[in-house]
């Protein structure tokens, strides 16, 4: 119906490399017939928190098998993994997870700190059992948020030890990671992170519908979204195909706006209108002092609005370009 109005999915068949929808299972009831309809749009499911401990192994294995019948990968959450690590029961935990049929283990550092050597050991252990590690980056407590540099360092560590993608912490959607205390997306943080890490390596936890809509509007159908409730799956898929949802109308401006002094905003405007600029050209065009231009460029890089690249015509010089809304 109205096929000519929808955008075709790039990765329309599972297993998908991009455009992943990662739902949470809190043992909510669902109708099997309806689930059959929406299952092609679900790539992964996490059995939430400590819930795997609340039912028998037989019941858990049966639930995992149900998802496998629909070609959906099943994950155990980072909370349970951290608990096993803290209790020095990780090897037994991995054996149980493998035996029950899970495909993915989330690993986070919410309450623990793991060295790069320990992370390598964990990844090797999981690979030996044909389990995929999914490293979760960030803290759940709004009072203990990581800096931008710490976040990028943790992401790179996870990718270095073999994680195909990382999961960016979203908790309840407020005052953590890329979200402010009202649940709005901090676009300067998103821009800064995705200027360093290609967005196709990130699964954004998006507990709120408005966050799902905003990230699809920003990055397009290929954005990977997690922490999704079952009820939102079809709405997300419709937005990936170019149709607006009710929550889409609540999105404020999606444009990244430069912050800082008038000089910094002027520098951003000049680079944006000229596509790419050398520092010397910026000085000549803006008539600003060299130090002012250098300060403005550093501020714009920190906000994730521009990137610095080597000039291929003269490797001694740098050029500055606007961060594209497209995939890096």
Structure overview:
By secondary structure, this protein is an alpha/beta fold. The longest helix has 13 residues, at 57-69. It contains twelve helices and eleven strands. An eight-stranded parallel β-barrel has the order 1-2-3-4-5-6-7-8, surrounded by four helices. The chain has a three-stranded antiparallel β-sheet with strand order 9-11-10. It has two domains: 3-250, TIM Barrel (Alpha-Beta Barrel), CATH 3.20.20; 262-322, Winged helix-like DNA-binding domain superfamily/Winged helix DNA-binding domain (Arc Repressor Mutant, subunit A).
Strand order of the largest sheet: 1-2-3-4-5-6-7-8
Termini separation: 33 Å
Taking all residues together, what is the mean pLDDT? 88
Total beta-strand segments: 11
* Number of DSSP helical runs: 12
Low-confidence stretches: none
| Largest sheet composition | 8 strands, parallel, barrel
Query: Remind me, CATH topology of the largest domain?
Result: TIM Barrel
Structural class: alpha/beta
| Overall 3D shape | globular
Order of helices and strands: EHEHEHHEHEHEHEHEHHEHHEE
Radius of gyration (CA) equals 22 Å
Tally the structural domains: 2
